[in-house]
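Two proteins follow. First one:
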Amino acid sequence: MPTLYSPAVFMDTIVENRFRLNALGFKMLGILLIGFLTTCVSADGGADVVLSCSLVEEGGGLGGMGGGGMFTRTPATLVLRDLAVTPDLSPETLTPFVPNPIPNADDIIIEAKVTSPEIPEADLLLHADCNEQEVTCEISRYYPRGSQDDSEPAYFIGSLQVEGGGLGLTLILQTAAVETDQSDPPALVQNKLELPLSQSGTLLTEVVYLVFSRLQSVSAPLGGVVLLDCGFRQQAPPPGPDLGLEWRLQHQGTGRRVLELKVGQTGSEVEPVAHVERQGSVVDAALLVGEGNASVSLSTLKVSDEGTYICTVSTGVFQAQQVIQLHVIQPPRVTLSKDKLVFLDTSPQKLSCHCKHYYPLDAQVEWLSLSPSGTEPVLMADQGSLSSHRQHSDGTLSISSHLILAPSSLPAGTTVTCRVSHHALASPLSISLTVEAPEPDSYWMFLGFLVITGLFFYQVMR
C-alpha cells in the first residue's frame, strides 16, 4: 500500500518546520496557487463554480531551501457542478460553463458532481468572486486504504480555501464511467493522468467524501471557551463502527494529541469511545455520528493551547482533514503610577504607565499631551523609556513605559495620556491625568514641613 499524505497537513508543515503525519494513511501533496473563480449556471438550474487549480505530483528534488522542488505543478481546472443557488443569486445573471469545443488531451479539466453529499456553506464559494475573495485550489491523486496505484475507479483529493480564514474544504473525488455511443469518436485519454475523458474533454468525477471547516481561524480570550468548527459528509450510508476522529495540536515544531474518538460495536449497539488527552476538550459523539459534526470545544484556555489544530476524520476507506488556527488573546490592564500630578517646585517628576498581563507579545505604548487651550491631543516629543518584557507563570506579559516630566513644558491644566494599542483591543486603550496647580499655601506648608523635620532630627542627634 503506498504511503499517503494530507494536503492540510502539508500546508501546516510549511509553517511548522515540515512536520509530517505519516500515520494518517493517505497521500496529498500541497502547494498554493491562487486562481480565478467563476460562477456559472448549469443546465439543471444549479450553479457551477469554475476554479483554476494546481495538480500536484511528486517531483525529483530534495526539497528545502535551495534543495530543489519536492513537487511538480501542472495547471488544472476544477468545475464544481450543480451547487445549490441561494435565493439572492439570480440564475439569469450567470453564464453557463462551456468547455473547449475542441477537446485537448493535454488539458486537465476535472468536473466534480457535488449534489450528494452537498457542500455546506456553498454560497461562500458562489459569492467569493463578487466579494473579491481569492480561493486557493490544489488537487492530487488519492489512494484509499487498501487500493493500488492502477485500481479503478481512480480517486483525487482536492483542497479549497476561501481567503480570509473562511470556508475550507477537503474533497475526495471518484472518477465516473465515460458513457459513449457507437457513433461517438473514441474517447480521449488525458496525457498526464492516463484516464479517459468525456466527449467534451473533461475528466468526470463525483464527490464521495468531504471534510470541512466554516471558520479556519479563530481568536479566544485566555481562560475562556472556544469551539473549533469541523465536520464531514459522505456519499455512502451513515457512518458506522469504522468512524474515527482525531484532533491534534501543532505549535512551534512540536505536536500533541488533544482528543481521539472511535466508534466501536458492542453487540448491536454502536458505541463511541473517547480518549481525552487535553482536559476540558469535548466532542459531542451523538452529533458526530448523527450529523457529521466533528467540532471540538476547548475550555479554560491557556497560552499553551494556541497553535494549529488538525481535525482528521476517517470512515471506511476514506480519510481527510482540516486545519484550524487558534489564537489566544488577552487585553492588557493599564494603570498609571500616579493619581494626580502636582509640581511643587522646578524639579521634574517621573510618571510610569504599566501594561500588565496581556497576550500576545506586541503592545505599543504612546504618550500624548493636551494643552489647556488645545482641542486635540498630540504625541509628546519625549516618548520615555520602555522596560524589558516580563513574562508571568500563565504565559502573559507585562511592560512599563517611564516618562520624565518637566514643569516648564506642562502648565497646570495640561492632560497627559498613556495610550496602549494591542491585538486583543478593538481600539486603543487610554488612561489620563491632568496637571494640577499647587494649592496657594502648599509651597510654604511644604517648606515649613522641611524646617520642622530638620529641627526634629537635630534635637534627636543632640
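Second one, unrelated to the first:
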Amino acid sequence: MTSLVHLGRMFYLVNPNATTFQDPKDVPKYVNEAASTFVLFLLLELALRLWQGKPARLNDAFTSLGLGIMHEATLFASETALLVGYEWLYQYRLFDLAWDSSVSWWGAFLMVDFIYYWVHRANHEINLLWAAHQVHHSSEDYTLPTGLRLSMFQRLTYFGFYQPLALLGLPITSVMVHLGLNYLFQFWVHNEAVRKMGPLEWVFNTPSHHRVHHGANKWCLDKNYGSLLIVWDRIFGTFQEEKEDEVIVYGLVEQPQSLNAVWHELFYLEKIYEKARSMSSWGDSLRAVFYGPGWVPGAPRLGDLDSFPDVKAPRVKYDPQMPAWFMLYTALHFTLAFGAQQILLVHLKVSPWYTAVLFLAFIFLTMGVLGSMFDGFRWAPLLEAARCAAFLLYARATPITSAPPVDSALVLCFSMSAVFWTVMSLRALRAPLKIVKED
C-alpha cells in the first residue's frame, strides 16, 4: 500500500486529507521518501531503452545523479532560504484560512503552480538565476535522470517568490506540501517514451511539452515553463507545441564539454563575471548580470533571438567512453555518496556542524573527482587516491555507520581503491592515463 501511495504522489494523485498538516515538522520529506520509486523508474527506463536498441549513456546519467545527490545534500540550507520570512509575513495576512480547510489545500495547489511558472521563467530570463538553472538543461539526453539534474543553488533562486502567498493566508504547511508534490511530478515528464497524451495536453504539462522546453533548437528556447499545469504558458504566450517533423536537440545552445558535476555547478558564474567585466559601463555590467543570458549591448532585454545560432540535429554529443570496470566503480562510489547524504540528514540533528562539512566535502569530492576521470583529467587518479585515503583517516577514528561489519567493508573497499589509484597515479605521472577511449 505504501508503494502505491509513493507512486501516486509521483503523478499528483493524492488525497487532500492525507496531505494536510498543521505543523511544518509533520510535512513528509516527499523526495527522500520517493527514493526507491525513483530507482524503480530509472531501472525500468534503462531496460526499455536497451530493449528498443537505444543507447543508454551511463556517463551522462551519472552526472545527472551526482548533481541530484549534491542538490539533496545541501537542501537543509537552501530549503530554509526558500520560505524564510514566511511566518513573519503571515501575521499580516489578508485572509484567515484554516490549515485543514479544502480552500487552503486547493488554493495552495493553484498558487504554488502559478508562482512556479514565474519562478521558472525568471530563471531563464535573469542571467544570475540562469547560472543555477542551466545545470538542469545541460544534459544532452532527455531521460529520467535529467529530472534529477538540479543545481545545489536552484532553490536559492526561489527566494522572494513564494513568500507573498503568506499574505493570502495560505498556511506554510500547505505551501510546503505542494512544493514537494510539484517536484515529484516534474521527475517523470523527463522521458521520450511517452509521446502524446491526448486531451490532457491542453491542461497539464506532459513529456511532449517538456521535451520542447529542454530543446536547444531556436524554436524551443524559453518555452513551456509550466510544472503541473501548462495553461499558464497558454495564457502568457510561452507555449510551443512539439513539432513532429523536427528532431529536438537536447542540452544548451553552447553545450559545455564536461561530465564533471561540480564543474557544471560553477563554470557559468565565471562566464557571468567575464561578461560583466568586459562591458564598457557600470550599467551594461549590471545588465550582463540581471538581463537575459543572451543579452548583448544594444539588444532587447532577452537578447535578439534572430542572432542566436539555430541548433539542429544531428549534433555530436560529448560522450567519452569508459571501461566497464570503471562504470561499476563509479556506480559503487555514487551509491556510497548517496549513503553519505542519507547519513548527513541524521548527523545534522545530533552532530557538530563540522561533521556536516566533512560529509558534504566527501560528497562533493566524489562527484568532482570521478567527473574528472570521465573528462580524462591527468591528475584525477592522484586525487581519487587522496580522496580514498582521506576517508580512511576519518574512518580510523570515527564510526561511519552504526553497524561495525558495514564499516569494516567500507574500510576494505576504500583501502583497495586507495592502493589501486596510487599505482595508477604513479603511472599517470610518467605518461597520460589512457582511461578515456576515443570513438
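SUMMARY FIELD: Residues 324-350 form the longest helix (27 residues). Residues 276 and 286 are 7 Å apart (CA to CA).
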